[in-house]
Design goal:
about 375 residues; alpha+beta; Ribosomal Protein S5, domain 2; six-stranded mixed sheet; four-stranded antiparallel sheet; globular
């Protein structure tokens, strides 16, 4: 949906009067999966598409949440911010409001209308996009003067403590701090980061959507986090990022469970792959970057066990195309999307052939998007 359409729906729904418009992107992670909550490196970028939001203050304490993507509209009092399952998508907004209140920010009532073009449950962070959108809106509208890094942390707390999913900080960071045509090489423990230009020249980034909803992702995410914590206890370290591959090889016998050993092996070598991949990209070695993506997917499939048939088919079919230099699942897994680097001359063949073979194997269509790297969440001066 275009912003102009959303503005009309907003005024039809809430009436005439001044309002403000905002945009928050989705994100794709190029490499470094399930490393963020282990204190490791990730390499995400913000996308050009995401979630639009319109907000207007009220003179009372009533909060009104509406979305073009869901039929449910929610109206609550500012004093009633507890999580309620029946409020569904609006809980992501309510959680952000609660964080602002808990931080002592003086709020009044308001009405919000949102509209997203990130496919739900696709692994492109639609929920984090909504959280960061809400925080950016409230920060601007109520002059809260919260800096961007604090907004990132605030939105992670919403996900962890209010929603109950023990995610790392990558999604919120990429969405809040994104920069057009740059990815972010982020240390998720220290939050030190650098912007790295994405100069693909003769290549395109293609996101392929399995259109399988990630039904297991939240519960399995928490399970994987618990397994990583167990590996840390066995190794006597705080975070899996604290041990390098060579030191891990000397000490991995201390891990009692084979499953937990597999999880730790993925994380430790994925962190190493991410560091090497960024170096290769900086040096213009796209083919080596792509090979590290392929290794990442194999590890996520075999060791971390967060892939699924749909993701594996998309990756295997992608790698049959001559112009594909790398392909991997992106996001939490169990559905969602893959990201591939494909030579320009083979993009049309990729979309046609991978799409046909995926439908033949799985029974329904996949969706394909040419990824453009956009800015982080921001006020739209219209």
């Amino acid at each position: 949906m275009q912003l102009k359409e959303l503005e009309k729906i907003f005024t039809d729904n809430f009436g005439e009067g001044e309002y403000s418009c905002f945009h928050s992107p989705g994100r794709v992670n190029l490499i470094g999966e399930h490393t963020d909550y282990n204190g490791g490196y990730v390499f995400p970028c913000a996308l050009s598409f995401g979630t639009y939001g319109i907000i207007r203050k009220r003179n009372d304490n009533i909060l009104k949440f509406a979305s073009t993507d869901f039929g449910l509209q929610v109206e609550i009092d500012l004093d009633d911010l507890e999580y309620k399952k029946e409020h569904d998508w609006a809980n992501y907004l309510k959680g952000v409001v609660k964080e602002f209140v808990d931080m002592g920010v003086k709020l009044s009532g308001f009405e919000i209308m949102i509209s997203g073009n990130i496919p739900n449950a696709s692994g492109l962070s639609s929920s984090s996009s909504v959280e960061v959108l809400a925080a950016t809106m409230l920060n601007e509208m109520f002059d809260a003067k919260i800096d961007k890094i604090e907004i990132v942390k605030l939105c992670q707390r919403v996900e962890n403590n209010y929603i109950g999913v023990q995610t790392g900080i990558m999604d919120q960071f990429a969405i809040c701090m994104g920069k057009e045509n740059f990815a972010m090489f982020l240390n998720c423990d220290t939050l030190d980061f650098q912007y790295v230009p994405i100069k693909l020249d003769n290549f395109k980034l293609i996101i392929s959507n399995t259109k399988k909803r990630r039904e297991l992702a939240d519960s399995k995410y928490n399970e994987r986090r618990g397994e990583c914590d167990e590996a840390c206890r066995d190794l006597g370290i705080n975070l899996l990022a604290d041990i390098a591959p060579d030191e891990f090889e000397k000490n991995k016998h201390k891990i009692k469970s084979e499953v937990v050993l597999n999880r730790a092996t993925h994380v430790i070598y994925e962190i190493d792959r991410t560091v090497r991949a960024v170096t290769e990209l900086k040096n213009g070695n796209i083919s080596t970057f792509g090979e590290l993506m392929n290794q990442s997917h194999k590890s996520l499939k075999d060791l971390y066990e967060v892939s699924c048939k749909e993701l594996d088919v998309l990756v295997s079919e992608a790698l049959k195309i001559k112009g594909t230099v790398g392909s991997r699942m992106t996001g939490a897994g169990f559905g969602g999307c893959t990201v591939s680097i494909v030579e320009n001359d083979f993009v049309d063949e990729f979309i046609k052939t991978v799409g046909e073979n995926y439908k033949k194997e799985i029974g329904h269509d996949a969706d394909f998007y040419l990824a453009e790297i956009g800015d982080g969440a921001k006020f739209l001066d219209i």
